Hints:
Mean pLDDT: 76
Shape: elongated
Order of helices and strands: HHHHHHHHHHH
Number of helices: 11
Amino acid sequence: MTGVPLTDGLAGVIQALAAVLRTAPDRIDPQQSFRTLGLDSIHTAELMAALNARFGIAVAADALYDHPTPAALARHVQAQSRPAPQAADQSPAQVREELRDRLAGIVGCDAERIDPEAPFHAFGLDSIRAAEFMAAINATYGLAERPVTLYDHPDLATMAAHITAVAYGAGTQTAPVRAEDALASPEMNQDEVGALLDAVRADMLTVDEAAALLAFRPA
């Protein structure tokens, strides 16, 4: 089994880049540098979040320094997407600890401070960080879960049980929880709404998933 074919990786990079830059994919030269194409630091963060979510990888934004063109980045995406050797089955407790370490790195706190039964929004996991967290989980366990999975499994304990069941077929999946309890999502501004619409156009979110994110408001 191989990872993402290079042609698919390049097409994905160009589509995501076009969405970020608000331009047509056929206007992007894959051999031009990202700087020449007009990519700034904000665009870079948006692009990498989109690619991580699309390909189930966890590549940092500074990868663009070493891979400064769409063609070079596509080769890097292809390499990162190659599936890791199949690991031995893990228990929900082991998965929970792995997820806790991943979450701590994303929200910037010590793993020991994360209560597995506390809701994700208690740690500041907004929709952007949720996409990053889910991409890291997908890369670790070879899954293709969407960020909205965190709405149904809104804390580490229930999320670990779900991932264990999906990845290893162990136990039963936890019952969905109300979306209102899942993530803290302050009222979206125009740029955030635009980013969601771009994600739908790039096939990184479904219309229903984007609608769920748009509709959610904290009580």
